């Protein structure tokens, strides 16, 4: 793997950095204080080609490579991890399943609207009683004529508040266990489908996390994605890609924590000198930088494998595990270095601390990542 970005990748990095500073940074206060979903920013991201970066131009995407997409999540998350997760879920989990498993009609109907940002995509797998054990979902889908009737509820759905398209997993054959799970494209205006309560979260304010309720929801049979029973594989296969996105999001948080800490440690004076003159602080910075560098290599290694079409389930889990633990550690140390100011909402490290925690939990807790990694080691 080359450790250097190509000209095009560097150009995308500059463009995304500039966009994040100009368009996203001024909106953070509204997201934090009012939990406001950045819908106008998402539309602008669409207009700038950011909502379908790795998707071919024939589908309205930017036609860039997978590393460019990861660079975009990484850079946006340095400014706002909430916008970072919206982008990652929209592309990896809201759009890719249609691209890879959809019929031509489904692709034509949905992909150009998703890549342009006209539609926002969401991924509805998790339920109140099914989180890590995603094979145990109980939302049901029963075929009736030319529709499936869905009943059940979903939980913790990123962008649920504003999404237009929900990749939804439901049981079509209970006797088959995980192999009886199927995937559906559910439109926001489906009769019997409603957006439930919005979660009041510790962090990632503005990412519009909601419940979803299906009460005899009538989903047209032509919105079945792939074949009946293929749902679990569609979910896990796309989560490989999604986890690289979350690893990149965490990398953005870590880098922001480190940069804020360096700046603060150089200007904060105590005992007549900057606190960076104390090894207790300087060594914290050294440890943070070492871990951030290692996380960066793991994230881009997984992205490189994915870009070259090589199966990367284990590497995606390793990157997700290490990068998100690094984000939590870096944000914790950043708060410590900032002292009382770090605990105050006046400084951004408090937000980084709250945002980092989610990355260790969603798209598979880090305990699940260890399970995936160890299963691969022992199977080999
Ligand atoms: N790609 C494709 N198929 C895969 C796969 C992969 N990476 N991993 C497993 N599969 C297939 C297996 O081949 C197997 O197929 P068969 O039934 O045909 O043999 C099937 O899936 C089951 O595999 P396992 O035996 O490994 O499944 P398991 O039930 O023992 O364990 C698990 C699965 C790893 C624990 C899985 O349930 C899991 O990843 N859980 C975490 C759930 C999760 O990540 N949720 C994220 C929610 S989305 C989200 O958070 C988005 C957001 O909003 C931020």
Automatic annotation (TrEMBL):
Acyl-CoA dehydrogenase/oxidase C-terminal domain span: 229-377
Spans traversing the lipid bilayer: none
Co-factor requirement: FAD
Keywords: FAD, Flavoprotein, Oxidoreductase
Segments forming domain Acyl-CoA dehydrogenase/oxidase N-terminal: 6-118
Domain of life: Bacteria
Record flagged with keyword Ubl conjugation: no
Cited InterPro entries: Acyl-CoA_DH_CS (IPR006089), Acyl-CoA_Oxase/DH_mid-dom (IPR006091), Acyl-CoA_Oxase/DH_mid-dom_sf (IPR046373), AcylCo_DH-like_C (IPR036250), AcylCo_DH/oxidase_C (IPR009075), AcylCoA_DH/ox_N (IPR013786), AcylCoA_DH/ox_N_sf (IPR037069), AcylCoA_DH/oxidase_NM_dom_sf (IPR009100)
UniProt cross-references to Pfam families, sorted A to Z: Acyl-CoA_dh_1, Acyl-CoA_dh_M, Acyl-CoA_dh_N
Keyword flag Oxidoreductase: yes
PANTHER family reported for this sequence: ACYL-COA DEHYDROGENASE, ISOVALERYL-COA DEHYDROGENASE, MITOCHONDRIAL-RELATED
Family according to the record: Belongs to the acyl-CoA dehydrogenase family.
Protein name in the entry: Alkylation response protein AidB-like acyl-CoA dehydrogenase
Organism whose genome encodes this protein: Paenibacillus sediminis
């Amino acid at each position: 793997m080359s450790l250097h970005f190509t000209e095009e990748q560097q150009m995308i990095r500059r463009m995304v950095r500039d966009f994040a500073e100009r368009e996203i940074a001024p909106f953070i206060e509204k997201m934090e204080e009012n939990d406001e979903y950045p819908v106008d920013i998402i539309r602008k991201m669409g207009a700038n080609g950011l909502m379908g970066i790795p998707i071919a131009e024939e589908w309205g995407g930017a036609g860039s490579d997978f590393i460019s997409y990861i660079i975009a999540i990484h850079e946006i998350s340095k400014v706002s991890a909430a916008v970072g997760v919206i982008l990652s879920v929209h592309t990896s989990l809201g759009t890719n399943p249609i691209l890879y498993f959809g019929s031509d009609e489904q692709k034509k109907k949905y992909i150009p609207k998703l890549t342009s940002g006209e539609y926002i995509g969401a991924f509805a797998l998790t339920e109140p009683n099914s989180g890590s054990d995603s094979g145990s979902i109980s939302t049901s889908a029963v075929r009736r004529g030319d529709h499936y009737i869905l009943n059940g509820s979903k939980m913790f759905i990123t962008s649920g508040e504003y999404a237009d398209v929900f990749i939804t997993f439901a049981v079509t054959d209970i006797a088959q266990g995980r192999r009886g799970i199927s995937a559906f494209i559910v439109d926001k205006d489906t009769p019997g489908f409603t957006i439930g309560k919005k979660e009041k979260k510790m962090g990632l304010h503005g990412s519009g996390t909601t419940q979803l309720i299906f009460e005899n929801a009538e989903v047209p049979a032509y919105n079945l994605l792939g074949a009946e029973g293929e749902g679990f594989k569609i979910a896990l296969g796309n989560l490989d890609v999604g986890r690289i996105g979350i690893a990149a999001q965490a990398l953005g948080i870590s880098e922001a924590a480190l940069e804020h800490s360096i700046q603060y440690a150089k200007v904060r004076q105590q005992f007549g000198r900057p606190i960076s003159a104390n090894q207790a602080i300087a060594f914290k910075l050294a440890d943070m930088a070492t871990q951030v560098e290692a996380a960066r290599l793991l994230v881009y290694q997984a992205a490189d494998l994915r870009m070259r079409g090589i199966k990367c389930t284990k590497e995606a889990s390793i990157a997700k595990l290490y990068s998100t633990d690094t984000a939590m550690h870096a944000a914790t140390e950043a708060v410590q270095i900032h002292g009382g100011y770090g605990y105050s909402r006046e400084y951004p490290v408090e937000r980084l601390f709250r945002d980092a925690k989610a990355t260790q939990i969603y798209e598979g807790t880090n305990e699940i990542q260890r399970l995936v990694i160890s299963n691969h080691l022992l199977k080999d």
